[in-house]
Amino acid sequence: MRSLPALFFMLLLASAVHAADWYASPTGESGAAGTREKPFDIATALMSSKIAAGDTLWLLEGVYKRRPDEQFDVKLVGAEGKPVIVRPESGKRVTIDGGLRTQNPSAHVWIRDLEIIVSEPHPTELVGPGSHPPDFKR
Question: Which of 76, 108, 111, 135 is deepest in the core (most CB within 10 A)?
Answer without folding.
Answer: 76
